[in-house]
Each structure stands twice: as C-alpha cells, then as structure tokens.
Amino acid sequence: MPDAAPNPLPKAKSRRPAILGAGLLLLALALVVIYTGRGAFRSPIALVVVAAIGLAALLLQLRLRHDLTSVRGPIWLNAVGVVCAAAAVVADVFHLNFAFLLVTALGAVACFAISGLIVLNALRKPRAAK
To answer: Which of 2, 74, 89, 128 is the most buried (most CB within 10 A)?
Structure first.
C-alpha cells in the first residue's frame, strides 16, 4: 500500500475584516453612549440611531465577506427607513407634532429591523454548492 499523502488542511480564512467590522460597530455604539446625555436615551431618535448603526453593521459585514455576493438587502426598504429617520430628525429639531415624531421613528426602526431580518434569513438559507 503506497503512502498516501494526508489531505492538506484547508487554508484558514482571515477573520480580520469581521473583527475590524465588529470593532467599528463597538466604537460607534460607544461614541453614542459616551456622548449622549441620560435624557436623550428616552428620545425616539436614539432608537433610530441605534437601529441604523445595527443595520449599517450588518450591511458592512455583507460587504466585507466575499462569499456572500448573492445576499442583498432590499434597497427600497432601506430608503424608506432613511426617509422616515430624516423625517423624525426634522420633527425633533423643529419641535413638530410629537405623535408624528413617534410614528416616523417607529417607521424607521421597523424598516431597518425588517431589512435586517430579510438579510439574516438569506444568510441562514443553505446555498447550493458550485
């Protein structure tokens, strides 16, 4: 029986982009927490900011992982979320109707959450081997 060469170990993938992305996310969240007063966390705008940071982190991970080229977030839903977030900020800055502020902030958070769920669901689905 000839000596069979052992199977070579698969080349380990670099985890640097994932760790870098996680570090940037932690930095962004730390800056939000450090430079935000205690009363601001009761504001709906704070929820919008944290939801936007979370969605941005998820989309950044999609961008950095090269094996996930087929997974895309719904652009129209992200655009609606950005419009709702901008409307919430405008309503907060100009002291418009508080109910309008709450509805637009909730709409932005809901759009970002649904978009994130769609992307995470696509990541969980098994892909066909090529």
So the answer is: 89
pLDDT digits (tens, 9 = 90+) for 9-60: 555 566 677 677 778 777 877 887 787 777 777 788 877 887 887 787 777 7
Rounded to an integer, what is the distance from CA 80 to the centroid of its chain? Answer: 15
**What is the residue whose two structure tokens read 């080349």?**
11
Which residue is it, tokens 């992982």? 65
CA 77 to chain centre: 13
The C-alpha angle with vertex 108 and arms to 70 and 118, in degrees rounded to 5, equals 25
Nearest to 18 by CA among 50, 60, 55: 60
Cβ count within 10 A of residue 9 = 6
Report the candidate in 118, 108, 14, 109 with the shortest Cα–Cα distance to residue 58. Answer: 118
CB under 8 A, 24+ apart: contacts of 100-104: 101/44, 102/44
Q: Residue 113 and residue 118: Cα distance in Å, rounded?
A: 9
